[in-house]
Amino acid sequence: MKKTIFLLHLLVFSFSIAAFSQTDEEKVEAVIESLFDGMRAKNAEQVAAAFSPEAIMQTIAAKPEGTTVASSSVGDFAKRIGSTPAETQLDERILEYQIKVDGALASVWTPYRFYLNGNFSHCGVNSFQLVKMAEGWKIVYIIDTRRKEPCEE
């Protein structure tokens, strides 16, 4: 009987520890969610904290003359977010997370819809590359597409 009770307690203890520990996939998703929460709050420090200092940001733009890729720095992006007027609402809504992790590398595909002041602005896909560093998962590369349609629901 004592052995059964001991094993039962051990089993419950194991489940409780597992409930409090996050998988790498959950940690990666939390970094990306923190980035977009920071955008909504217009918190430049929170936005910048999601990235490694040397991160690369790019956007693919389809234009009549052809596809272009525009680059920006994390510092400039965070500064723009932080200086957004108080009355302006930024809301990037992630529709789905497709996360792949191999050791210290994570790749994430996130279709999204972006709203400006509550109105649909554009949609697209973000492609993130994250690396697990001493301080945790950090975004080292993001490239996104932007279009008006067709958009996922």
UniProtKB/TrEMBL annotation:
Residues 1-18 form the signal peptide. It comes from the Bacteria. It comes from Algoriphagus aestuariicola. The lineage of its organism: Bacteria, Pseudomonadati, Bacteroidota, Cytophagia, Cytophagales. This is Nuclear transport factor 2 family protein. Pfam families: Lumazine_bd_2. The keyword Signal applies. Keywords: Signal.
